[in-house]
Structure formats: structure tokens, C-alpha cells
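A quick aside before the break. I want you to see a complete sequence-to-structure record at least once, exactly as it would be stored in a machine-readable document. Don't worry about memorizing anything.
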Amino acid sequence: MLLSLPVSFLGLSCFRSWIALLTSTSPLGGFAEPLHDCILTVSLLALAFFARKIVPLCERRWAYTVCAVAALMASLLVIASAAGVRPLAIEYAAMAFAAVASAFFILFWCELYSCLSIVKTAMSLALALLATEALKFLLEGFVPAYRLGALLVLPVLTLLLLARAYAHVPADSRPRVTSGKTHIPWKIIGLFAIYDFAQGVCLGIEGSQAGLYSGMAAVVVAALLLTAIVFFSERFDLSFIYRTPVVLLISALLFLPFLGDGSSNVVALSLSLGLRFFEITIFLLICDISKNFALPAVLLFGIEEAVIIFRSAGVGVGSRLDGLAALGVSPSIVIAVGIALVIAATLLLFNDRELSSQWKVSLFGPGKIQQGKERRELVEAACARVAEDYGLTAREREILLLLSDGKTTKQIGERLCIAKGTVKAHTEHIYAKTGINSRKQLMDLLNVD
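That is the input. The structure line, written in C-alpha cells, reads:
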């Protein structure tokens, strides 16, 4: 599967490299990223609010147009500023355009990945993280003129790869407009916000050093995830990914008294690793929840990604911690309290049993990711065989696949945007053509456990 994964699925790396290059090139310096994050949060929430009206976002030409224009305007304005045109209005406008483009880029790729199997999503995300760090490393070696040229090339390349990647998604796996009840996993999104805030505090304390740790953490976590899925998928347990941050933070807390001046460095690295581990877990969970409840990925990821504003708030807090020494308060004590709160929040808010029961998530346990992939492939093959043997129509085949996946009549109607009565009628036709009378007999016919 790794060898058959389309290269276009890694196009997310072009966007991530573009935004990193853009913020580092902007003359606004340290103010550029908080400004970008504030506008990005508003844009993401706005797109999430109108999600049911604009999905599938990857098929909306106007969305591609808005994204491309905003990205190119941001790049051109930053290039103009770097060339010596320095009115603040131009620099602020560049970050505003970049934030709008970023909102579309993020939701484009989140929607695409949510259409794939969990295994493909995990591998694509891991490879995209590795490719991002490789691209950023290469771009740092470019002369300034080439770096400015890359600002124009990268967003266009991202959109081209996105369109190519979306063409690889089967029609029956693409997102549809739904009208069912909205389910939002607020607890795990809130926990992600806490991690982002803690990461921001470390960025505020350590500055560029913490940014270096973030890149190192991305490479380590992506490499570990890719290795686990490719070579140990039969035994790999996703719970390892979300439990690792707690272990790292507890270790940092235990050794904090012995680290002295290097305590903030260790905490920054531990938090960076923890955030990356947790980020991947949340991403895979939301993709699974989106499929289980037929919810638009634009809605769920729009809310989840909007918590980036907490990182900016954390940076503001972290940059002021140095003033605590003058008040007689040791920053190490504050760091220790912060770590303890993050650990407590993780243990209280993240519960895999609740995820399994309330959100129908079945990703935890040895080999569950691999088993889910294999079962999905077996079910799809069995449905194709039954559809061909009994002459089912294209719509009946879609409903057959959803029935085999355990979806209720209501969920199927929401998924396919048809009335419950229509679903029942198609189900009766399937039963009549195949000579069965119940879903249990259907599963026996498909011969899949």
C-alpha cells in the first residue's frame, strides 16, 4: 500500500512549507504569526459554520479560486515588502490573505484525507510531515531570490496536487451534504487546545529553539508512525500514540528538579513530541468520527484547527514568564504546575472507552488499524460480488455497502441525501433480488464477519 500511495497525497507538505517560508520572510517578524493565527481562526470557524452548504469543498471551483488568489496576493505582498516596499498596511494585508488561504488549504486536505481509509490517512499524513521538514530544509539553502520565487510556486503546486489527489478518491467515498444531527467531540478538541496552549508557552520562553524542537518532533513522530504501520500493523496499537505524551510529560516532571537551567529545553522537547503524537491521534479520530456519523470533515476540522489561537495566547504568556523572577516566583515551579495540569487534563478528558461507545471509534487495540483496513477491503469486494451476481443498481450497491457497514436507515439517508422511505424501498429491493429477509442474512450472504 505504501508503494501504491499516490505522490499527490503528499501535497499538504507544499502548503506547510509555504506558510513556514511566508512567515519567516515577512518583515513583521514575531507579530506575523499571531496576526495570521487570529485571522485563520475566524476564517476556519466561518467555513465550519457554513460547512453543510459548501461541502464537498474539494469540488467547489470558487473555493479553489479564492484560495489561489489569496495565496498569490499574500506571496506578492511579502515579496514587495522584502524588496523594500514597507508600509505596514501592505504587511498586515499579506498576513490577512495568507490566513484566508491557509483556512482553505487546511480544510481542503483534511477533507481529502477523511475520504481515505485510516491506514492511507495515517501513511499520507506521516509522509507529508516528513516531506515538509525536507522541503523546509531545502528552502533554507536557497538564495533569497529563489526563496521568494518559491512563495509563488508552492501554493500553485499545492492546489494542482490536491486536484490530482482528489481524482484518486472513489466517487462513493467522497463527502456528501448531510442534514443529520451535529456531533462535535468537544472533549478531545478542548484537550488539543490545552496542548496547543502549552506548546505556545514553550515557544514564548524558548523562541526559535522551541521551533527547532517542533521540527525535530515532527520527523521523529512521523517516522515512528510510518514504521509502525508499514512493518508492525498487525500488532500496532494506536493507543500507544496518545499515551506516549503522558509518559513524556511525567518523565519531564520527575526530572525537572535535577535539570536546572536546562529544564525549559527538556519540557519544550517533551511537549513538542507530545503535541505531535496527540495531533496525529486527534486527526485520525476525527476522520473516523466524520465517517461514522456522516459529518462533513470541513465542520469538524474547521473547529479543531481553530484552536491554533490558543497557541498564540500561550506564546504571549510564555514571553512574560521571565518577569516572574523579579516577583520571587521560580519559572521552574510554573512549568511544573503547567505540566501537571496538562497530564491531569489528558487523563480526565481522553478516554478510549468513551470514544468506543459514544463515538463508535474502533481504532484502539493491537492490529485494529490493520484489521479495519482488511475488513473494509473484504466487505467492498463482497458487496461488488453480490451486486454483480444479483444485478443490483448503482444506488442499491451504495446502500448495500452502507448496510454492511452497520449504518442505520436514518444514517444511510443522511449519507446519501435521500429520504428514509427511499432507503427502505431500496433495501427491500436488495432483499427481494438476493432472496433474504434480514440484515443478519445479508451479512451471511456477504460471508464477512
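Two observations worth writing down. The mean pLDDT is 82. The CA atoms of residues 205 and 384 lie 57 Å apart. We'll return to this after the break.
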